[in-house]
Amino acid sequence: MNFRLINYIKNNEKLRNSNIYVIGHSLGGMLAPKIAESSSEINGIAMIAANARPLQDIITYQMEYLMQLDGDLNEIEKENLAIVGKAIDLSKSDT
Prior knowledge:
This protein is mainly alpha-helical and 95 residues long. It has helices at residues 4-11, 27-37, 55-67, 75-92; strands at 21-25, 44-48. The two termini are 31 Å apart.
């Protein structure tokens, strides 16, 4: 990862003794622990509205929600959800 901001903080006379925190919202909140683990200079994280479930478990739910905003699902939307569901199941399988 590119840590230019961390380098800037650590090399800046006024900031060099500051603690550094990663703040992530939604998907960024899910990534915050991974980002923080990649640098010993990061002192902590804040996860704001991060998903509690794995991303592949919420994709179908989010797609269905968005497709229903204009009313009931049409046949094409139902087919697309089924295809995405199969792809997600494949991504979770051991084969």
